[in-house]
Fold this sequence. Notes:
This protein is α/β, with parallel strands linked by helices. The chain has eleven helices and eight strands.
Amino acid sequence: MASATIGDHELFYERTGRGEPLLLIMGMSGTHLTWGEPFLEALRRDFDVVVYDHRGIGRSSAAQAGYSIADLADDAAELLGVLGWESAHVVGISMGGMVAQQLALRHPERVRTLTLGCTYAGGPRAALTGPEVLERLQSSWGAGDRERAIRTGWEVNVSPGFAADDAQFAEFRRVAMELPANLPAIFAQMEAIAGHDTSPRLKDISAATLVIHGSEDQMLPVANARLIAEAIPDARLEVFEGVGHLFFWEEPERSAALVREHALAHARA
């Protein structure tokens, strides 16, 4: 466990494993714990893995609203410098996938390979969270009942069958209770997401790109993945049938295998 001074912020990070450098960029309201141990353990076999908390979230220092996704991408680039990495394989999911897009565009020399999971590029053809799902989430946040908020977050982030697994929910709840996200931080991230639009520039991403998405994603519909894969030159698309937003939680070994295959193939090349 360590922290990096990035501008006015202290970013908490953890570094484990050995091998090629791999930076994992988490999504909205998530922390370094939200990746889940099965996914991380599978990656540590082949990678020097770094997970971190965005500014204002988890064990990182507080942050005022008003930052952009591009600002978070610059945080990631500076963190790579603190780690002593000239470049790394980068995996970004959901909001973290938006950050990863900006990282690949703003700092292309930093990105060896790019994996974009359950994410969104903005633009007129993209689709954010539907109103019914957003209403469920906002209602649970406003109720002041943390247990209800965690349960709702679980149900909209995984497929219905997986949501019924009590053991999996218990672990999700444990993670959420250990490092809860406060509402101002979530709203600051939502504001940053609202301003995100890389759609006209995806064609300029030069890193070899893998796009992964669950077909039952309620948070960001799978159509977003198809748009991204069509726009990035030579991108590869993998759709997990019957899987929700947190595909790496539902299918950790399969997800890690895809990341491993993609990164190591291009590392050898």
